[in-house]
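look at this fold:
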Amino acid sequence: MPRTRKQAVNVAEVSAPQVIITRDQYFQDIKVRWQIHQYEVNKLREDVIKFTQIVSPYVKQAVDYVTEKYQQLTAKHVTV
């Protein structure tokens, strides 16, 4: 298939967007969004703490079990 050039496209000029909110409204919006962010991060922290408290006994139990089994196996195979 022979190569052909693409046709030039007429590009319309882009004008600057109109101001939708004022600078003060923008800063207020940033402050509100930051407060929402802080709230969500604190809730996440609380959830992680709860998760850690729930899971940690099971992890400790698993580590103890694996340690005990490892010690039993190494005690069988120790040559004096």
Notes: Residues 24-51 form one domain. The chain is about 70% helix and 0% strand. The radius of gyration is 32 Å. Residues 23-76 form the longest helix (54 residues).
